[in-house]
Design a protein that fits this description.
With 278 residues, the protein is mostly helical. The chain folds into 2 domains: 6-116, Rna Polymerase Sigma Factor, Chain: A, CATH 1.10.1740; 121-277, Up-down Bundle (Butyryl-CoA Dehydrogenase, subunit A, domain 3), CATH 1.20.140. The protein has 15 helices and no strands. It has helices at 6-12, 24-37, 40-50, 52-62, 71-88, 97-116, 121-141, 147-154, 158-170, 193-196, 205-209, 212-227, 231-242, 247-254, 258-277.
């Protein structure tokens, strides 16, 4: 089988930098032909058609990463995820390819970032302590702690807690496909929030996401956990993940600073993860 080099595709074809001009009918025919024949030329056409998704995800992720992480690197890693998505996608299931692919593209980027271990040890320790305190509180009270309650559990002031949350947010540790921190203190537990979504009834959540009915069940499960969050945190998650606004834009909508939005976003994801693995 011919090997497609993602970086070479990105650099050599200008179509990568613009949205696809293929009609829905052309794409349907291309998917049908590729799933039937697994032709290398058709696979490359699909990569070129959907490559802008990697650039889109890279742009969003890059804004929350340290300056030494280059967008071109993220794009290259993301294209590897795109290739994997193309190989696994089944158009007959009726699931749209774009959201399916974007999960895998972002996951491939985060996998590479985690392998670089670029997050400072102090930030990882802070994240671990906060998540453990959050889980302990929720086990007893059956609700997420407020920031003042969480700070009390940690034995620190609210200002110190907010500083830690901002450090966690800036390091992009917490996302729906980032590894859990509560499992082992050495960070060797690589389960993600996505892994925990289904609970005991879902042995392989990523596989379940490929199935339409199971995906709906997972959404309902996550919605229940989101509903337990404070209203302001729910609003931030909705604007960020559903409306796809940036932190700065959300801050403008809510009339608070971008850094405060980042703190609340990190706190919301910590609460969600504690609820889903509890």
């Amino acid at each position: 089988m011919k090997t497609i080099t993602p970086t070479a595709v990105y650099k050599s074809d200008s179509r990568f930098h613009s949205h696809s001009t293929r009609s829905d009918l052309d794409l349907q025919e291309l998917w049908h032909r590729y799933t039937r024949d697994r032709n290398d030329a058709d696979r490359e056409r699909l990569v070129l058609n959907f490559a802008p998704l990697a650039k889109l995800v890279a742009g969003r992720l890059r804004s929350r990463l340290p300056s030494h992480v280059e967008e071109a690197e993220l794009i290259s890693w993301g294209l590897t995820g795109l290739l994997g998505a193309i190989e696994r996608y089944d158009p007959m299931r009726g699931v749209k390819f774009e959201p399916f692919a974007m999960i895998r593209i972002r996951g491939a980027m985060l996998d590479e970032l985690r392998s670089l271990d670029w997050v400072p040890r102090k930030v990882r320790q802070d994240a671990h302590e906060i998540e453990r305190a959050e889980s302990s509180f929720m086990a007893g009270q059956q609700r997420p702690p407020t920031e003042s309650e969480l700070a009390e559990c940690l034995g620190i002031g609210e200002d110190a807690l907010q500083e830690r949350l901002l450090g966690i947010a800036d390091s992009a540790i917490y996302s729906f496909d980032a590894p859990l921190m509560a499992g082992r203190s050495d960070g060797s537990d690589n389960r993600t929030l996505l892994d925990s979504l289904g609970g005991p009834g879902f042995a392989d959540p990523q596989k379940e996401l490929d199935d339409v009915e199971s995906a709906e069940a997972l959404k309902a499960n996550l919605a229940d956990a989101v509903a337990c969050l404070p209203e302001r945190q729910q609003f931030i998650l909705a604007l960020y993940y559903r409306e796809e606004l940036r932190m700065r834009e959300i801050g403008e909508v809510m009339g608070i600073t971008e850094s405060r939005i980042s703190q609340l976003h990190a706190k919301a994801l910590i609460s969600l993860r504690a609820a889903m693995i509890g």
